[in-house]
Write a structure and sequence with these properties.
Shape: elongated
Helix content: 40-55%
Oligomer: single chain
Structural class: alpha+beta
Order of helices and strands: HEEHEEEHEEHEEEHHHHH
Distance between the termini: 18 Å
């Protein structure tokens, strides 16, 4: 059952992406030859107007085939309604629309997450670990309070890493060492930097954990839900960006690269390990949001063969006042696709190896 749910989620994310291209292409007057949900052998296919609509067997992809999107060998155009014949600004909107729809889906999923909370979490400190004495004084067990942090401070960054929401805080406390850290907070509309902050809870019942402060939780209202959703959305985008940076700089090894098989496996595992239905729904919504935001950002990277790579050529055309020769652009995108297929093969190999090792 978990695998079926995972395939549905993955199919939804890709379909939403391609639907963005489809809608904008239609609105721009570009001829759409086929809109397909899924890849591989056809299950159902129906011609409506000039467009063929298909449902295919493998729910791990999909596509929106536009006339003239990929150049013919001699660089010729098929018709005045081909993709390459459309005005530059229309082509740029069509290319960016897929990622935009992924971000829209991600924001919707994040909003569902926030609505599932009893209250909306913030990054504002509500208090520190401590006990109130008989004389009304407080004995603090919080190292961060001793370093200068105060109740009401809004945490802006830790060790240069921007903190947008409680998700960033969870990530930081899950990965950082129990040492001194640089913390930037907002206090009374002023940014303050503390260079030697140590997080440590010395309360006898705390087992010496690093989390030595609490956070403010706000009542759910339309404004707090939208604000909280925006913060979590930014956090997820930030996490994706950090992961890509680690991959490029070599901090993330090639063995940790994962593909569609790994994504489906992770969603299935999340479903099976959830303690109850509510937790399962929350975890699935969380993973859907993270994956769709990941896909949106990845597609906008300036890599040949991706939407971002095609947008680079649009910007070159904007600067040069004339397009790059179609055959030349085609060769670049072909090289990019070869590279992407190589990465996909590596990711699939890693996914299968992990499945075998964990079985």
């Amino acid at each position: 059952m978990g695998i079926i749910i995972a395939l549905i989620i993955f199919g939804l994310i890709v379909t939403v992406h391609e639907f963005g291209h489809f809608v904008c292409a239609k609105l721009s007057g570009i001829k759409v030859l086929e809109f397909s949900v899924g890849m591989g052998p056809k299950i159902v296919q129906k011609q409506k107007g000039e467009t063929m609509y298909s449902l295919r067997a493998l729910p791990l992809g999909g596509y929106c085939a536009m006339e003239g999107e990929d150049s013919t060998p001699d660089g010729s155009e098929d018709s005045s309604r081909s993709f390459r014949s459309a005005k530059l600004w229309k082509r740029m909107i069509v290319l960016a629309a897929g990622a935009f729809m992924n971000f829209v889906l991600g924001f919707v999923m994040v909003t569902v997450m926030i609505l599932m909370y009893d209250e909306v979490p913030t990054t504002q400190i509500s208090g520190f670990s401590g006990v109130r004495n008989d004389d009304d004084s407080v004995t603090y067990y919080s190292a961060s309070h001793d370093a200068g942090l105060e109740k009401g401070d809004i945490i802006i960054s830790i060790d240069g890493t921007r903190i947008f929401s409680v998700i960033d805080l969870s990530y930081m406390f899950g990965t950082m060492q129990d040492t001194e850290h640089e913390v930037v907070v907002k206090r009374n509309s002023e940014k303050l930097t503390f260079s030697n902050v140590r997080f440590h809870n010395s309360h006898p019942e705390s087992n010496g954990g690093m989390l030595d402060f609490g956070l403010v939780y706000k009542e759910k209202t339309p404004l707090t839900v939208i604000k909280g959703s925006g913060d979590v959305f930014m956090s997820m985008g930030h996490l994706v960006g950090m992961s890509l940076k680690q991959l490029v700089t070599g901090k993330l090894s090639k063995d940790e690269v994962s593909g569609p098989v790994g994504v489906v496996s992770a969603i299935n595992e999340t479903t099976e390990q959830s303690e109850n239905t509510e937790d399962a729904i929350f975890n699935l919504v969380y993973m859907t949001a993270l994956i769709t935001i990941n896909l949106g950002i990845f597609n906008l990277l300036p890599i040949p063969g991706l939407d971002g790579g095609r947008l680079v050529f649009c910007f070159i055309e904007l600067i040069r006042r004339k397009p790059v020769k179609p055959e030349h652009e085609g060769y670049v995108h072909l090289a990019g696709m070869v590279l992407l297929f190589g990465i996909m093969i590596l990711a699939t190999y890693n996914d299968i190896a992990r499945l075998i090792n964990n079985s």
